[in-house]
Amino acid sequence: MKKISLLGLSLVVVFGLSNCEEETFTLGDGPREVDAAFTFEPFAENANIINFTANNPELNAKWDFGNGTKGDGPNATAIYPNKGTYTVSLTVLNSGGSASSTQEITIAEDDLSLLNSPLFTMLTGGIDGPGFKTWVMDSTKKGHFGVGPNPSSGQGDVPEYFSADPLIKKGVGMYDDKFVFKLGGFKFDQITNGNVYVNLNDDGSPGAEADFSGGYENQGDFTASFEDQIGEQWTIKENEEDTTLTVSGNSFIGFYCGTRTYKILKLTENELSLRVVDAYNPLAWYFRFVPSE
Questions:
Q1: Is residue 88 within 8 Å of residue 64, measured between CB atoms?
Q2: For residues 255 and 224, is the Cβ–Cβ distance under 8 A?
Q3: Which residue, 128, 90, 94, is CA-closest to 112?
Q4: What is the per-residue burial (b if ≥16 Cβ within 10 Å, else e) of 11-36?
Q5: Domain range for 139
Q6: Residue 264: inside a domain, yes or no?
Q7: pTM for this structure?
Q8: Phi/psi of residue 280, nearest 5 degrees
Q9: DSSP alpha helix (H) spans, the chain
Q10: Strand 215-218 versus strand 84-94 pairing type
Q11: What CATH number is associated with residue 155?
C-alpha cells in the first residue's frame, strides 16, 4: 500500500510540474520603428507655431520639441519664437517597450510676440526686461514654506499641517538659494551656494535624501551638498485643471522632495507661490518666492 501511495503522489507532483512548465506569459510586442514616426506642419496663421502628429495614435507618446518644452499625446503643438534649427524627438511606449525617432525643423524668422504671454513676462521679466528674473524664498514672511496633505482636504491648497514662521529655517541651506528664469531658450539656473534643503522621511525609510551623496540631518530634515545647476530649462504648461511649472535635469525649486513639477498657485510681478507633491509621502509642500533685490 505504501508503494502505491508513493507512486500516486509522484505522478501528481510530476503532473503538476508539467502543467506549470507549460504556462508562459508575454508582455506583447513593443513599438516598431514606423510607430515612432511623426509628421509636422506649421499653422496657417503663424509659421512659428508647429503642429506635430504621431504616426500611431494608439501608443503613449512623449515629445521633446528641442526648444526647452515637452509634450504628451499623439497630437501636440509647440511654439518657436526664435529662428533656428531644432531637433524634435518622439518616444512611443507600450507594455512591450518603446521606440524613438527624431527630425529637424527650421524656423526661418523670429516672432518675439509669441513671448508676450503674461505668465512668461511675470516669471522672467518679459521681452522688454533684461531677459531674466531671479527669485528667492520670501523667508521673512510667515507661510513662506509649509506642508499639507495630498490630495488637498476641503480647505483647498493650503499648508494646513505646518506654516513656517519668518526665518525659522535659517542655516539649513534654503534661504540663500536663487532661481533664475530666462526668457531666451527658456533657460533655468539654480544657484545653490553649495548646499540645499531636502525632505527626510520621519520613519527612517529612504526618501529624497537618497538622491544626494553627502549631507546631514538639520532641523528635522536634511542639508545636502549640491552644485549649481546651470543651463537647465523651464516649462509652463496650462491645463484645464491647473497651471504647472517644470524644471529639467537635476535642478529643482525651493525644497527637494523628489519632484520637479510644481503647481502655480499665484504668479504676479512680485510673487511666485508654488505647490509640489512629495514623491515619497502623501504630502504636498508649499513655497512663496519674491524677486531678488
A1: yes
A2: no
A3: 128
A4: eeeeeeeeeeeeeeeeeeeebeeebb
A5: 118-291
A6: yes
A7: 0.73
A8: -115, -15
A9: 2-22, 118-124
A10: unpaired
A11: 2.40.128
Rounded CA-CA distance 254/278 in Å is 13
User: Which of the listed residues 60, 90, 114 is the one where a domain comes to its end?
Assistant: 114
pLDDT 10s digit of each residue in the chain, 293 long? 333 343 343 433 433 444 555 555 556 789 999 999 999 999 888 899 999 999 999 999 999 999 878 888 899 888 999 899 999 999 999 988 999 999 999 999 999 888 888 999 999 999 888 889 999 999 999 999 999 999 999 999 999 999 999 999 999 999 999 999 998 878 899 999 999 999 998 888 888 999 998 899 999 999 999 999 999 989 888 878 899 999 989 999 999 999 999 999 999 999 999 999 999 999 999 999 999 97
Question: Are 123 and 56 part of one and the same domain?
Answer: no
Q: How many CB atoms lie within 10 A of CB 8?
A: 10
If asked whether residues 100 and 217 sit together in one domain, one would say no
